[in-house]
Design a protein that fits this description.
The chain is α/β, with parallel strands linked by helices. Among the domains are: about 15-165, 3-Layer(aba) Sandwich (Rossmann fold); about 180-185 and about 210-445, Up-down Bundle (NADPH-cytochrome p450 Reductase, Chain A, domain 3), CATH 1.20.990.10; about 455-600, Nucleotide-binding domain of ferredoxin-NADP reductase (FNR) module (Rossmann fold, 3-Layer(aba) Sandwich); about 700-760. Helices cover about 35% and strands about 15% of the residues. The chain has 27 helices and 22 strands. Strands 1, 2, 3, 4, 5 and 6 form a 6-stranded parallel β-sheet that branches. The chain has a 6-stranded antiparallel β-sheet with strand order 13-10-17-8-9-14, with helices on one face. The longest helix has about 40 residues, at about 825-864. It is globular. Its main location: cytoplasm. Keywords: Cytoplasm, FAD, Flavoprotein, FMN, Membrane, Metal-binding, NADP, Oxidoreductase, Transmembrane, Transmembrane helix, Zinc, Zinc-finger.
């Protein structure tokens, strides 16, 4: 086995692929890994991280981890238990010394903490003694070719490492692999269908969950936008009496949607399926469990309507399997082209860009669709995933009701049929006035937590449907007698999309709420919530600094979060009289103490843009030139932020290894109390780390407030950031985390870049006198000094001894630059001298040109 020095190669590697997936992309890549392993005659298991008994990890010789990053650098839901376990500080340093591993990350470089989970897991596995076969792979959705642009070459190198000098012949690409399950159709329909039994359970045992949701009766489905408004927004209310649901402000409700009846009929017609036919599902391999969410026996109608996501945009693996199953030569050739790395751009134009869904693709390839064996349905089509919505009501105000605010997603591409969100469109189609309607749902903790102390005020900024979680918070705080509620709400027009106007007005009359509105389309110049924030800057600063207020932000993630953050930083800087670095440190302190919280939803793709999705899928951040990871083994540290929302969740129980007592095994799960104590100890002793490369800061680095936007980088990432920008474009440098332009003052960028060049390049001769400190601020003298500073830096950034257009020997310019070190007056005289010399040079250059032009004008006039 390559990658493990001094170890004998394994004759037949046992490959384990573990994935953490939020939206299904990581699971799809894991399934692809499993297929390619089987093509290479390798035994392979593919499992979700939380479904794998983690105590057995020390016995695994070869493991591939496929991890997505969600929210603000959080792990996916199906790997949070594993994440909490693997960062226990009590795990021995050599626990995984017998394991070879590789980590494949999936993220989006337009979001914060790009591939943070994969980077941090890679470093943690190295700390525990694992041997890395390859550097971590960082797939990026923002790449012009998608994540496959990084994954394809990485997988090629992976198989070379795994197989070593003994490669095996591959199956031809057109040969289909065996399906994971077989569908055994029943001759007669069962008397009592399991799906009917499940629908009948309106009082599940224990709290509702994904495997056992509560079928909540819908009691209201009301459109709350005007008839002429461009978007259909619904206020939907459910009756949760007797459900066992318990939620607080900031929590989210997850809803399992269904496909439209017209799509179900079309799908069954294209594939030649009988909707009323029943079947049982059997796995082909003994270690592959049947999906827990699928009832047994099940009808084709139930399978297609509730479990197969036939309106999702297919991934490349869909076309790869479809090509293997196609009996039609021309269709197979086109499908093979789509599934190849060379055809990625054409696949993007055909499928990804216009958001063409699986059903439409099957209709475009009718001969192939009609020949698909039913056994391959679960391999070919991903399952429908639940959608998350912010709870818009308080259980204290309405004990037996749960409300959500849903924006119905509909947008147009170049395709004739408009694109529609699956869950929002399904919910909008339900009418409780026509008969009983039940919706499967359950509740999970959200990303916003509100203070329980009565005298702490809260400032909430929620434009559009982002106001939904704040309505729940206001209802909850008013029910508890808390009156310090300030809401900034923005929409287009007062008479079209002013949600809960009457409720807000009544609370204002009672003195329980201060409402600030921004209607962007009611005047010639658009006004947004960030403008209202700036207008009330003194009040915001008074609440934040003197009364300890908490600041919350929710809404879409396109431009609004950055604009509101800029407005808040301006308020802190202007009203508080703080400098740029001090403002950044102040804002960072608010974030660390959870006094500044944000919950945003993406505005692109097929995701339902409804009442506050819990966060952008596969969210992460950093530009591509900061993706490289420092391969340095750092001190053991526990990430206390990742498991913050677990609320004491335990690791899955597993049998002790080789009959040993559980207490003697360092990898055995601990009791809840011990685990909580250990996590608290980890939080107290955790080192601060760079948010880009996840490496701990070296001594003194974390004390530098490097970026005005509030983000700090280690010296290595800062050096790569500044080194990637030409000297003329330093003012356009963007923060790799929030992409704000000019994160530092230009003169400070020059100073830092000069220090880094001096540290890494050849040392310059020491000056006769120490250089005086730069002016701390963007004043006129500092700006003038910045103008000339780059001219006198050492190579490769500067290297010029004098300025352009300087009508003097080079030594004169260098003498004037050195003269500024002799004091404030000499500094100003030197800068003015350099400016005068440059103006004189420009005058000497352009005066002859102007005279020559005048001469041509005179000659032309005399010729006439």
């Amino acid at each position: 086995m390559q990658g493990s020095l001094g170890r004998a190669p394994m004759p037949s590697p046992r490959l384990l692929v573990l994935f953490g997936s939020q939206t299904g992309t990581a699971q799809d890549v894991s399934e692809r890994l499993g297929r390619e392993a089987r093509r290479r005659r390798l035994g392979c298991r593919v499992q979700a991280l939380d479904s794998y008994p983690v105590v057995n990890l020390i016995n695994e010789p070869l493991v591939i981890f496929v991890c997505a990053t969600t929210g603000q650098g959080d792990p996916p839901d199906n790997m949070k238990n594993f994440w909490r376990f693997i960062f226990r500080r009590s795990l021995p340093a050599a626990s995984l010394c017998h394991m070879d591993f590789a980590v494949l990350g999936l993220g989006d470089s337009s979001y914060a903490r790009f591939n943070f989970v994969a980077k941090k897991l890679y470093r943690r596995l190295l700390q525990l003694g694992g041997s890395a076969l390859l550097p971590v792979c960082l797939g990026d959705d923002q790449h012009e070719l998608g994540p496959d642009a990084t994954i394809d070459p990485w997988l090629h190198n992976l198989w070379e490492k795994v197989l070593g000098p003994y490669p095996v012949p591959l199956d031809p690409p057109g040969v289909p692999w065996p399906s994971k399950f077989t569908l055994q159709f029943l001759q007669e329909a069962p008397r009592t269908c399991s799906e009917e039994l499940r629908v009948a359970r309106t009082d599940p045992q224990g709290p509702p969950s994904e495997l056992q949701p509560f079928l909540a009766p819908m009691v209201a489905n009301q459109r709350v936008t005007g008839p002429s408004h461009f978007q259909d927004v619904r206020l939907i209310e459910f009756d949760i009496a007797g459900s066992g649901l318990s939620f607080a402000a900031g929590d989210v409700v997850l809803i399992q949607p269904e496909n439209a009846a017209s799509h179900i009929r079309q799908f069954c017609q294209v594939l030649g399926l009988e909707p009323d036919q029943h079947f049982t599902l059997q796995p082909r391999e003994p270690d592959v469990p049947c999906p827990k969410w699928l009832p047994q026996p099940c009808s084709v109608q139930c399978l297609v309507s509730r479990y197969l996501d036939i309106t999702s945009v297919p991934r490349r693996s869909f076309f790869e399997l479809l090509a293997c199953l196609s009996p039609h030569e021309r269709e197979r050739e086109k499908l093979l082209e789509f599934s190849s790395a060379q055809g990625h751009e054409e696949l993007h134009s055909y499928c990804t860009r216009p958001r063409r869904n699986i059903l439409e693709v099957l209709c475009d390839f009718p001969h192939t669709a009609g020949a698909i064996p039913p056994d391959y349905l679960l391999d070919l089509i991903p399952p429908i995933r639940p959608r998350a919505f912010s709870v818009a009501s308080s259980q204290l105000a309405h004990p037996s009701r749960l409300q959500i605010l849903v924006a119905v997603v509909q947008y147009q591409t170049r395709l004739k049929e408009p694109r529609r969100g699956l869950c929002s469109s399904w919910l909008a189609s339900l009418d409780p006035g026509q008969g009983p309607v039940r919706v499967p749902l359950w509740v999970q903790p959200g990303g916003l937590t509100f203070p329980q102390t009565p005298d702490i005020p809260v400032i909430m900024v929620g434009p559009g449907t982002g106001v939904a979680p704040f309505r729940a918070a206001i209802q909850e705080r008013v029910a508890r007698g808390q009156t310090g509620n300030i809401l900034f709400f923005g929409c287009r027009r007062r008479d079209q999309d002013f949600y809960w106007e009457a409720e807000w007005k009544e609370l204002e009359k009672q003195g329980c709420l201060t409402l600030v509105t921004a209607f962007s389309r009611e005047q010639e110049q658009k006004v947004y919530v960030q403008h209202r924030l700036r207008e009330l800057g003194p009040l915001v600063w008074e609440l934040l600094d003197r009364q300890g207020a908490h600041f919350y932000l929710a809404g879409n993630a396109k431009y609004m979060p950055a604009d509101v953050s800029d407005a808040l930083m301006s308020i802190i800087q202007e009203e508080g009289g703080l400098s740029g670095p001090d403002t950044a440190a102040y804002l960072a302190r608010l974030q660390r103490t959870l006094r500044f919280q944000m919950e945003t939803a993406p505005t692109h793709g097929p995701t339902d843009l409804s009442s506050g999705l819990t966060g952008p899928p596969s969210a992460s951040l950093g530009p591509e030139h900061l993706d490289s990871l420092c391969q340095v083994l750092a001190d053991d540290g526990s990430d206390s932020r990742a498991p913050a929302n677990l609320h004491g969740a335990r690791i899955l129980d597993s049998e002790p290894l080789l009959g040993a007592a559980v207490i003697d095994c360092p990898w055995a799960p601990t009791e809840d109390g011990d685990e909580d104590k250990e996590e608290q100890a980890g939080e107290q002793g955790e080192e601060e780390e760079c948010p880009v490369c996840t490496e701990p800061y070296r001594s003194g680095e974390h004390q530098l407030a490097l970026l005005n936007c509030g983000h700090n980088l280690c010296a290595g990432c800062l050096h790569r950031l500044l080194g990637a920008a030409p000297s003329a474009d330093l003012g356009r440098v963007r923060c790799p985390l929030c992409r704000q332009k000019t994160p530092m003052l230009e003169w400070e960028i020059c100073r830092l870049q000069e220090e880094l060049l001096q540290a890494d390049g050849p040392q310059r001769p020491a000056p006769a006198a120490p250089l005086g400190p730069l002016l701390q601020g963007p004043g006129p003298w500092a700006c003038l000094e910045h103008r000339y500073q780059l001219r006198f830096l050492t190579r490769p950034l500067g290297g010029r001894g004098c300025l352009p257009f300087l009508p003097c020997p080079p030594c004169l310019g260098a003498w004037l630059w050195a003269l500024r070190e002799r004091g404030p007056c000499a500094r100003r005289m030197a800068l003015l001298g350099l400016l005068a010399l440059e103006l004189l040079g420009l005058l000497l250059i352009f005066t002859p040109l102007m005279l020559l032009g005048l001469l041509f004008v005179l000659l032309d006039g005399s010729g006439r």
